[in-house]
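TA notes, week 10

Several of you asked for a full example with nothing omitted. So below is the full record: structure tokens for the whole chain, then the designed sequence directly under it. When grading your own attempts, check the secondary structure regions first.
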């Protein structure tokens, strides 16, 4: 079992939520609640202006802790902002006003939050919220550049309706994005500098304007791999077919939406060339209709029973062949095999036939493994060995697979 800190990276982490004087301060309440649901220990540091929008009592009720008070609230020889800076794993500033960011950029310390930030050496995530003209103003943009150059991670702002009723860039990023950025920020970056392309989900092969061929893949395994890899610092291109679940906004994760096997082939191949590893988890359609009818096929004319199918190109096999032709070791190639019985034999066959380094195979007929469930029991198959992973959540399975990808990438790097 993975320790809880790896399953939910915020578990047991101490997060200081700084809140500025913006109407978006009310959404910080939701951020505090979500962080606590994920097991974080949360304390809130509202600025004096923030307290005019949301009372500290609200934040104290939601966090279960007293708010960090004024910068001069030194009692019994204890200096709260210094203690807080030592205790915190992460500072998440939401909402960050233009004024608050200007003060952060210039090292001012007239609020407990600002004093804590000056004493804090760890990761800082900032979610700006303001009117679009304030956001685009040269002074604000210069302050943003300064903060970025110091390693502060900014989330948003996004386009949308603003406090004035106008629309534009300046709205605070969605709560889910802030929570995901917080999870990313507290993770060890052991995959930093690694470029990955990951495929996920089904592909859809159109038959006519209303019908298509597809499969039951939910994309969860590929998504788990992409999210975990990005949290561990990899730069991830996620080439995915139509998914029923949203791709979370994780820093370093770039989703590329495609529909057909041909589109997935093109987008994946061009990214694989500059990747350290390609992890092909998608359930790519094996065949597509030879032609795409412009008008709806008529069953009365027997057109539906005469559909001619042609094979799609195998992305993984093509990458394997291209690598072999160049006598190259990169990118590391990882494939998946969903079988119903004789898992090891089929996986060995695929490993050889597609020319990859690792096949992750599972029996989709087994309860709690495969499509549309949150768990998997995987057999990892390398050219000279194999190993079963324990039956576990797709997040946990993804974690183990990424450890193996990391080892394979390290081996090719040494051999270059
Ligand atoms: O042959 P099979 O479909 O079982 O192989 C599965 C593996 O090959 C998966 O890694 C899948 O993503 C990949 N694949 C591919 N392109 C195809 C078919 C499968 O990359 N057209």
């Amino acid at each position: 079992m993975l320790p809880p800190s790896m399953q939910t990276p915020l578990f047991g982490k101490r997060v200081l939520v700084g809140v500025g004087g913006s109407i978006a301060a009310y959404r910080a309440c939701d951020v505090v609640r979500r962080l606590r649901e994920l097991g974080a220990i949360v304390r809130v540091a509202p600025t004096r202006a923030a307290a005019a929008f949301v009372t500290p009592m609200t934040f104290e009720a939601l966090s279960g802790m007293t708010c960090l008070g004024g910068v001069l609230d030194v009692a019994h020889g204890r200096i709260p902002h210094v203690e807080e800076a030592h205790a915190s794993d992460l500072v998440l500033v939401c909402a960050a006003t233009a004024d608050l960011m200007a003060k952060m950029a210039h090292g001012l310390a007239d609020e407990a939050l600002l004093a804590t930030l000056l004493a804090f050496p760890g990761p800082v995530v900032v979610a700006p919220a303001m009117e679009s003209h304030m956001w685009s103003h040269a002074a604000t943009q210069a302050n943003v550049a300064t903060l970025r150059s110091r390693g502060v991670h900014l989330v948003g702002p996004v386009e949308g309706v603003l406090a004035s009723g106008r629309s534009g860039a300046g709205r605070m990023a969605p709560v889910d994005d802030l929570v995901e950025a917080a999870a990313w920020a507290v993770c060890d970056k052991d995959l930093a500098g690694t470029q990955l392309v990951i495929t996920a989900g089904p592909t859809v092969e159109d038959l006519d304007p209303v019908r298509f061929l597809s499969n039951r893949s939910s994309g969860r395994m590929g998504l788990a791999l992409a999210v975990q890899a990005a949290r561990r610092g990899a730069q991830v291109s996620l080439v995915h077919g139509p998914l029923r679940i949203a791709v979370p906004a994780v820093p370093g994760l770039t989703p590329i939406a495609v529909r057909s096997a041909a589109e997935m082939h093109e987008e994946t191949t061009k990214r694989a060339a500059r990747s350290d590893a390609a992890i092909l988890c998608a359930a790519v359609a094996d065949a597509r209709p030879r032609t795409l009818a412009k008008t709806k096929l008529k069953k009365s004319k027997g057109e539906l029973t005469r559909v001619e199918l042609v094979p799609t190109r195998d992305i993984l096999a093509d990458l394997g062949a291209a690598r072999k032709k160049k006598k190259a070791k990169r990118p590391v190639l990882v494939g998946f095999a969903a079988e119903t019985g004789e898992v090891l034999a089929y996986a060995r066959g695929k490993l050889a036939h597609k020319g990859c380094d690792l096949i992750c195979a599972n029996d989709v007929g087994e309860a709690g493994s495969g499509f549309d469930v949150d768990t998997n029991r995987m057999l990892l198959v390398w050219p000279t060995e194999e190993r079963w992973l324990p039956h576990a959540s797709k997040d946990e399975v993804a974690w183990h697979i990424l450890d193996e990808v990391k080892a394979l990438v390290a081996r090719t790097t040494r051999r270059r």
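The pocket of cytidine-5'-monophosphate is lined by residues 199, 261, 280, 282, 284, 312, 314-316, 335-337, 350 (CB under 6 Å). Use that as a sanity check on your answer.
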